[in-house]
Amino acid sequence: MEAHLRAGVAIYNAGGYHAAHDAWEDHWLDLEAGTDDERFLHGLIQFTAAVHHVANGNWAGATGLAQSATDHLAGLPSPYRGVDLEPVRRHLAAVAADAEATATEPPPQLTHDGQAIEPVDLEFEAAAVAAAVLAEEVDAYDESVVEDAVRFTSDGDGGGRFVALLMDFVAEPDRRALVYTRLEEHVRRRRAEVRDVEGLFEDRE
Fold it and tell me: Are 131 and 166 in contact (CB under 8 A)?
């Protein structure tokens, strides 16, 4: 759970309010309804959605989500799973009271273990989650390229270049398109190598 949690926090802090929930959603859907972890992630998902609606001027949508997120987070200790919930609760209360008024100030950053982490702060496991989320958000990127790149990181000495490119893809938004092009080239080359090896074994059978 921690890798998904940190990935979402970092994406949110980088301004990806809509994308952040994708880092949490798959894990959240597997949790038993009503458990503390389920309510925690559900509340964060709705919190980021409320922030996204405020940014886009959807006051009614933001208000409804703020009220629902508040209900999900009610009673959870702060911090929970390392996330300080008090700034989240204060912002949700403000949005529920007057969503339009909150548009004049930036939303609070999320902290994990006391740090407002950004994508550059992520360790590889969380960066891999973030890379998949970021690829899904942009039509120009093929999600399967990122998925295969993550898989190829276990390829002995050759895996290091995939780790480095995935980390750069997440941490360097200004160079993301260029990094993706290089990542795609390496993935295409490695896929071809895998096909050649598989074909060799098939010929021997």
Answer: yes
Beta-carbon contacts of 33 under 8 Å, excluding residues fewer than 6 positions away, are none
Residue linked to tokens 């896929």: 191
Range 2-119: architecture per CATH: Orthogonal Bundle (1.10)
For the beta carbon of residue 33, count every other beta carbon within 10 angstroms.
7
**In the chain, where the domains are located:** 2-119, 138-204
pLDDT in tens, 153-165: 987 666 889 999 9
pTM: 0.89
Q: What is the pLDDT of residues 6-36, one digit of tens each?
A: 999 999 999 999 899 999 998 898 899 999 9
